Amino acid sequence: MITLPAAARLRGRNVLTVSDLGSDELASLLALGTTLKERGREQMTLLRGKTLVMLFEKPSLRTRVSFEAGMTQLGGHAIAVNGSDVGIGTRETPEDAARVLSRYGDAIVYRTHAHEPLVRFAGAATVPTINALSEAAHPCQAIADLLTIRERFGTLQGLRIAFVGDARNNVAISLAEAAALCGMSITFAAPVTHRPSDAFLARLVKLGAPHGVTARAFTSPIRAVRDVDVVYTDVWTSMGDEQFVERNLAALRPYQVDSALMGAAANHALFMHCLPAHRGEEVTAEVMDGAQSVVFDQAENRLHAQKALLLALLTDLRGLTD
Length: 322
Ligand code: CP
Prior knowledge:
Blueprint: H1 23-38, E1 51-56, H2 62-73, E2 77-82, H3 94-102, E3 107-111, H4 115-124, E4 129-131, H5 139-153, E5 160-164, H6 170-181, E6 185-189, H7 198-207, E7 215-218, H8 221-225, E8 230-233, H9 245-252, H10 259-264, E9 270-273, H11 285-288, H12 295-314, H13 318-321
Parallel strand pairs: 1-2, 1-3, 3-4, 5-6, 5-8, 6-7, 8-9
Helix pairs in contact: 1-5, 1-12, 2-12, 3-4, 5-6, 5-12, 6-7
Phosphoric acid mono(formamide)ester binds near residues 60, 61, 141 and 275.
């Protein structure tokens, strides 16, 4: 008898936040992602005849192309609808769009602004919905990030990661949740205006309780990154928040990741960024393009992690385990 991996339990489910995944399911997805990465661009037929519908109300390079390339490599097909053509909230309700698209596609990837329409959409869809970024979460990025860390260190449990900058943004939230689930302790470096809530920190500790995970926020970036294994940052102003650019520049300038800050982390520390990056703002060019940077591995791993996710949502995974 074949023992199916924990990720097989994801078949038919939605992934809107990291909390939609159990720790064993996340670990299993990472293992699948590694297997798929080892198999490179091998043309597979596991998703033959399957269609992925992708809705992007905001710009995307990595997410859109990695999902489309992944579907191609797995033998399926992807269709992207962009910008105002999506029409959710203007031409029709999230529920109506979900009911219609469920009749065309086998899964739906949706990048949107507020999280609530995504939840409404997923509630009405009869096929799996994947959050491709909302104001609240970016789970696909977090899965790829952990894949990247795991391939560098061989493990996740017991590692320490620091997120520096806007610690309330979607990338920080999903990264922290995924890290805690996998046994990584997290520190945040942020001014009080961008600091995660105490309730969120407590939630991370609870998520990582089986591993004794800690979660702390500091206003001092040096204190937050001291001896950590990974330093992570993101742009200071998220898509859709452009009216806050000047405010964020002023508040976050002391949180730029530069060589001096990386020097406070462990000697073996990685630098990570979900991209796109603004050299000279949240990170210096020296760090971004330096030896500790794994940002392009992260970007590549979007492909492998999402292929694993698609296979888990759309198949019983026997095609990979046979
Ligand atoms: N990191 C990320 O989601 O990239 P895109 O916005 O280009 O999809």
